């Protein structure tokens, strides 16, 4: 049955940024599809735990440093015994005119959105090899993996890079049965875009060029996230799928 291929029954997923927004939606969808979920967050994922229950375990970690990576893997194995899926969702954005953009705003974004993503992905892939299994890696990219954006140079650098690294890793690891893909969300109503949505002119501007005529929601991302984590995507390698209400098609 084709729908069985989308099931995540028996799988264990690590999802970063599990306390809110898109990450919380992905955790909920994975649990609904049958997976056990390790949610990584720097603040407790209390609401996510309430939504999901026993299939969810929260690991508290600050992903601005790579030091936390070994402990994330250890806690995942201790709790659920294996890892099959990693979603690199945690991310930050800093808005400042490029003419005066600070080194702090550069480094903080690149550390969370790119450096930790790479080394956590490497650690999870090593775990797949240790298990003798393949696995699925999903990187949350952005419209700014394709476009320049305004006043967000470090975010654009990180999200453009993550799309490239997704292809590199897919090339190297397809032979191990590891699929590395990305999802590029469009303009979604979460904390990440609160500042944009509160600026009436920018908000109206953005809305007017989304063919779907509305901001996206975490629920809009769930189908692509389950697909890329499931057996249904076994022959999809290195591609970043836009879930953007048609933004990139304009
Ligand atoms: P969000 O509500 O701001 O969520 C970001 C998540 O990342 C939160 O869980 C946040 O935790 C976590 N995080 C940030 N820094 C962290 C750190 N140092 N250690 C651990 N966790 C950290 O925004 P979102 O929209 O759901 O964003 C999720 C992903 O989608 C991000 O990668 C973002 O760039 C991407 N994205 C979003 C949009 C959009 O329109 N919303 C569009 C394209 C791409 P805290 O709550 O503790 O900060």
Can you describe this structure?
This protein has helices spanning 21-32, 46-52, 69-80, 103-131, 153-173, 194-198, 200-208, 218-229; strands at 12-16, 36-41, 56-60, 85-88, 135-140, 178-185, 240-243. The model has no long low-confidence stretch (mean pLDDT 97). α1 (21-32) crosses α8 (218-229) and α4 (103-131) runs parallel beside α5. Strands 3-2-1-4-5-6-7 form a seven-stranded parallel β-sheet, sandwiched between helices. It has 250 residues and is an alpha/beta fold. The protein contains eight helices and seven strands. α1 (21-32) links the parallel β1 (12-16) and β2. Bound molecules: NADP nicotinamide-adenine-dinucleotide phosphate. The site of NADP nicotinamide-adenine-dinucleotide phosphate (NAP) has 26 residues, from α1.
What features would you highlight for this structure?
single chain; 250 residues; alpha/beta; 7-stranded parallel sheet; 8 helices; 43% helix; globular; binds NADP nicotinamide-adenine-dinucleotide phosphate
């Amino acid at each position: 049955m084709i729908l069985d291929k989308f099931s995540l029954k028996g799988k264990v997923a690590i999802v970063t940024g599990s306390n809110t927004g898109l990450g919380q939606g992905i955790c909920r969808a994975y649990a609904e599809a049958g997976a056990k979920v390790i949610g990584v967050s720097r603040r407790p994922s209390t609401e996510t735990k309430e939504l999901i229950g026993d299939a969810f375990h929260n690991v508290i970690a600050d992903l601005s440093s790579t030091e936390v990576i070994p402990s994330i893997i250890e806690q995942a194995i201790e709790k659920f015994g294996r890892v099959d899926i990693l979603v690199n969702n945690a991310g930050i954005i800093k808005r400042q005119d490029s003419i005066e953009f600070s080194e702090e705003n550069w480094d903080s974004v690149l550390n969370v959105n790119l450096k930790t993503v790479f080394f956590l992905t490497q650690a999870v892939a090593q775990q797949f090899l240790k298990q003798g299994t393949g696995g699925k890696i999903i990187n949350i990219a952005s419209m700014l993996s394709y476009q320049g954006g305004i006043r967000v140079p470090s975010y654009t650098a990180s999200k453009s890079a993550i799309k490239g690294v997704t292809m590199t890793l897919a090339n190297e690891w397809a032979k191990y049965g590891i699929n590395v893909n990305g999802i590029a969300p469009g303009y979604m109503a979460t904390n990440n875009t609160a500042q944009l949505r509160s600026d009436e002119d920018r908000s109206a501007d953005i809305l007017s060029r989304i063919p779907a005529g509305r901001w996206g929601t975490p629920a809009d991302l769930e189908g692509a996230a389950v697909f890329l984590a499931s057996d249904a995507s076994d022959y999809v390698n290195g591609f970043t799928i836009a879930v953007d209400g048609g933004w990139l098609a304009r």
